[in-house]
Each structure stands twice: as structure tokens, then as C-alpha cells.
Design brief:
- By secondary structure, this protein is α+β, with helices and mostly antiparallel strands.
- The protein folds into two domains: 80 residues, no CATH class; 61 residues, Winged helix-like DNA-binding domain superfamily/Winged helix DNA-binding domain (Arc Repressor Mutant, subunit A, Orthogonal Bundle), CATH 1.10.10.
- The protein contains six helices and six strands, in the order βαααββαβααββ.
- The strands form two sheets. It has a three-stranded antiparallel β-sheet, with no helix packed on it. A three-stranded antiparallel β-sheet has the order 4-6-5.
- A hairpin with a 3-residue loop joins strand 2 and strand 3.
- Helix 5 crosses helix 6.
Length: 150
């Protein structure tokens, strides 16, 4: 556990019948040990069988930060960001971040229209987000576009 994330490492590779894409999309569920899975289900340690990745993705759907999955030959690493890692943003900064999260790449003028800020206010908020290393600035002049840092 870290301040900004939780990392879960699972020994063992994916089963031969499951591709990495199917695993990451939560499309297929095959139990390694159906007997243990059934026991955990009956003891109410798990709610549903084989829905973990899909449920994680659904939980982070509206989140600014997304979980990361790393599938190795002999293990799987799941990195779950802490939901409140952007609590230090102001209300105005949050509005811009949400727009950029939804639309990916926007000019300052597009942000003005979407949020209803004036040019000077948008520029101030964008400058703060750049200082906080939350966004990236691409280009110069009127064609400058902003996007969330990945």
C-alpha cells in the first residue's frame, strides 16, 4: 500500500485459454480452483465469481485516474490508484480536468465555452494545472491544445 495507490501482485500466469485482452476487459472468467472459489463465495468473502476486473473497471469509470494492469509471464500486477489523489485541486481546476478527461484534447477557447470562464481565468487555472504537472500543453498561440498528463 502506498499513499497514492494499492498494488496487488498475483503469482501465476493467465490460463492458456484466456488472452490478455479478454482478461483486461473482464470478458471471460475461468477459475484456477473452483472448489476454493465456491468456498469463498459461500463464506461471503467474495460477492460474485469471476467479476473482479470488470467491477474494478466499472468502479474507476468516472475517475480521473485509471487502474493499471501488468500481465507478466509468471505473475499479474494490478495497480489501483487512490480515488482521492486529486483532492488538492480547486473547484475551477477540477472543472477543467473533468473537461479534459472527457474530451482528451482542447484549446483554451474550447474550454472557455464549455466551462463559461473568461480567457484570463482559464489561463490562470491552466497555468496552475501545468505547475502541478497535471496537464500537458501542445503547440503555441491560438492552436495550443491541452490534455491530461498520462
Amino acid at each position: 500500500m502506498f499513499d497514492d495507490r494499492i498494488e496487488i501482485s498475483s503469482p501465476g500466469s493467465l490460463l492458456p485459454d484466456i488472452s490478455v485482452e479478454e482478461y483486461l476487459n473482464g470478458q471471460i472468467s475461468v477459475f484456477r480452483n473452483p472448489i476454493i472459489s465456491n468456498i469463498f463465495f459461500r463464506l461471503n468473502y467474495i460477492e460474485k465469481l469471476g467479476t473482479g476486473i470488470r467491477r474494478i473497471n466499472e468502479a474507476y469509470h468516472e475517475s480521473l485516474v485509471k487502474p493499471k494492469y501488468r500481465v507478466f509471464e509468471n505473475s499479474i500486477l494490478v495497480i489501483l490508484p487512490v480515488f482521492n489523489s486529486y483532492l488538492d485541486l480547486s473547484e475551477k481546476e477540477n472543472e477543467i480536468v473533468k473537461c479534459l478527461n472527457k474530451h482528451q484534447l482542447l484549446t483554451r477557447n474550447q474550454l472557455d465555452k464549455m466551462i463559461g470562464f473568461h480567457k484570463a481565468k482559464t489561463n490562470r487555472v491552466l497555468k496552475k494545472l501545468l505547475e502541478k504537472d497535471m496537464i500537458v500543453k501542445n503547440g503555441k498561440g491560438k492552436t495550443t491544445k491541452y490534455q491530461l498528463k498520462k
